[in-house]
Amino acid sequence: MRITYAMHVNWRWIRQRPHVLAEQLAQTHALSLLHYAMYHRQHRAAEQAPPFPAHELRRLPERVKRLGAPLRALNARWIGHQVARAVRAEGSELLWVTHPDFAAAALALDGLPVVYDCMDDHAAFDAAAAPALLAAEQRLVARADLVLFSSATLAQRVAARARLRRHEVVNNGVADSLLERAAAPARAAAGADDGPVLGYFGTVSHWFDWPLVLHLLDALPGARLMLAGPLETALPTHPRVRHAGVLAHADLGAFVAGCDVLVMPFVVNRLIEAVDPVKLYEYVAFGRPALAPRYAESERFEPWVTLYRDAEEALAQLRAGAAAGTDAAARGRFLAANSWRQRVRQIEQAIGAGRAGQARPAAAPNPA
């Protein structure tokens, strides 16, 4: 099948769900990638070029779109025109999109099957843009032949505000390259006298819980925080906070080796509540003690990740070593059942069912 795959991040951005699913689908389909041009080169993660035909989509910079609704509408029409032109030129049999920005393109291509892979509650990123994004999302899910949701919470939320035709909850997963790590025993925290090295890799943005982190560093005078990934917010001035830059995915192993406990210090707001965190699958695969906030979508990672409800519980867990599950065999089974390869098998079955005309009910989300 010929697939035009339109994703709302650049290929050289840090590796996320759209990157992995594109690579997996390209193994069995003729896939052509459309991805956003990158305006902030410091965010590049030095990944290789796409291993399939690719074209960058031009768009208005965020600072321009924020000037008003007419500019956001112009941006949507411009993106839609580029996607529709590419689909027609390539003779695609399916359009895969990852964001409400592509609603105009999907609507312009009447009769072409559309899959919308919804990985986030996009309207929760930006309050000013939320009304336009919600309206575009409603149009897109009503048009899509299949909507994939990365979490059950996200599926329930979208189902309450838009008319779904067919959908499937397809959680995030772990890459095959990390599965071999599951055979190694989990490493306990070093418990050094000068305090643990806390590690985090990924985007540092407004959802990062700096009050919590600074509280932990103050309570553990020898502790340090090591960060790797793009910075979308300023770092606090603190002598024990270090930023290693934006790393390629292949370099994460060396970064993690220097950390005692991997942390995901996120504020559990409306955006995070709907997130199935890719990061926690990766933390489990690295076999390090890990610490993350407790919410509905993080609870499936127990006992491999230690969860906390508030700052004091997080501190107590760190002082106790935030021990990870030590059963390597059980950890391996968890990761194998949650690999990206398994996720793509689920997606292929859902697409195949739709092509065969086997309708699925869309009244309630499937269990994760």
Total DSSP E strands = 13
Structural class: alpha/beta
User: How far from one another are the termini?
Assistant: 28 Å
Taken from the alpha-carbon principal axes, the silhouette is globular
**Main β sheet profile:** 7 strands, parallel
Low-confidence stretches: 358-368
At CATH level 2, the architecture of the largest domain is 3-Layer(aba) Sandwich
Give structural notes:
This protein has helices at 17-26, 62-65, 69-90, 103-108, 130-143, 152-159, 176-179, 210-219, 252-257, 270-273, 278-286, 311-319, 328-337, 340-355, and strands spanning 2-7, 30-36, 54-57, 94-97, 114-118, 146-149, 167-169, 197-201, 224-228, 241-243, 261-263, 290-293, 306-308. With 368 residues, the protein is α/β, with parallel strands linked by helices. The protein has 2 domains: 2-173 and 339-355, Rossmann fold; 176-333, Rossmann fold. The longest helix is centred in the first third of the chain and has 22 residues, at 69-90. 36% of the residues lie in helices and 15% in strands. Strands 3-2-1-4-5-6-7 form a 7-stranded parallel beta sheet, sandwiched between helices. A 6-stranded parallel beta sheet has the order 10-9-8-11-12-13, with helices on both faces. It starts with a strand and ends in a 13-residue tail after the last helix.
Brief rundown of the structure:
The chain is α/β, with parallel strands linked by helices and 368 residues long. It has helices spanning 17-26, 62-65, 69-90, 103-108, 130-143, 152-159, 176-179, 210-219, 252-257, 270-273, 278-286, 311-319, 328-337, 340-355, and strands at residues 2-7, 30-36, 54-57, 94-97, 114-118, 146-149, 167-169, 197-201, 224-228, 241-243, 261-263, 290-293, 306-308.
